[in-house]
Write a structure and sequence with these properties.
With 148 residues, this protein is α/β, with parallel strands linked by helices. 45% of the residues lie in helices and 18% in strands. The protein has a single domain (2-144), classed as 3-Layer(aba) Sandwich (Rossmann fold), CATH 3.40.50. Helix 2 crosses helix 3 (45-61). The structure holds adenosine-5'-triphosphate and magnesium ion. Adenosine-5'-triphosphate is lined by residues 8, 10-16, 29, 72, 108, 111-112, 116, 145, 147.
Length: 148
């Protein structure tokens, strides 16, 4: 079994990538919708990620071969729980990094339905730490994006 942790700013293309693969990831935004009837509700952060981890463990318990974590996962701290869960179920944990410049994310973000505010984009960009194999990932893949 494997866990694939997607890492990237809003607009970097995480959900588009999963749609192209034809898979449904565990999406923090979808869980916000399930819990609060609002995919943009940022006031229930802890509950959202508790629910996401619960669903991940349930998937591993029933032996699903791959689970994608569709959230920004910008920092080592945010990613660490998946390494631990992976270890306890004996599965590989990989990272896929959407290496897309802030300006490109901004441009894509401005064109879509659910627009993340400018100041939030800047804060997230400052927080972003690219995933590293030393965190415990079995593999780190970068997907560059330059096309706005
Ligand atoms: N490789 C790409 N080239 C050009 N445009 C892209 C590419 N990938 C995604 N986009 C466009 O960028 C926008 C944002 O993509 P997407 O919703 O996949 O981002 P996301 O990383 O899931 O963002 P969020 O974290 O906010 O959910 C969409 O309008 C999508 O069509
Ligand atoms: Mg998305």
């Amino acid at each position: 079994m494997r866990i694939v942790v997607l890492v990237g700013l809003p607009g970097s293309g995480k959900s588009t990538y999963l749609a192209q693969l034809g898979v449904t990831g565990l999406s923090s935004d979808a869980i916000r919708g399930l819990l609060a009837d609002d995919e943009t509700d940022q006031t229930i952060h802890d509950r959202v990620f508790q629910a996401l981890r619960y669903l991940l463990r349930q998937r591993l318990a029933i032996g699903r071969s791959a689970t994608y974590i569709d959230a920004t996962n910008l920092t080592v701290e945010e990613r660490r729980p998946y390494i631990g869960i992976g270890k306890s179920y004996g599965c590989d944990v990989e990272a896929v990094f959407f290496d897309v410049p802030l300006e490109v994310c901004r441009a894509r973000n401005a064109r879509r339905h659910r627009v993340v505010p400018e100041d939030a984009m800047a804060k997230m960009s400052a927080k972003l730490a690219p995933p590293d194999i030393d965190e415990g990932f079995s593999r780190v893949t970068a997907i560059p994006g330059r096309e706005p």
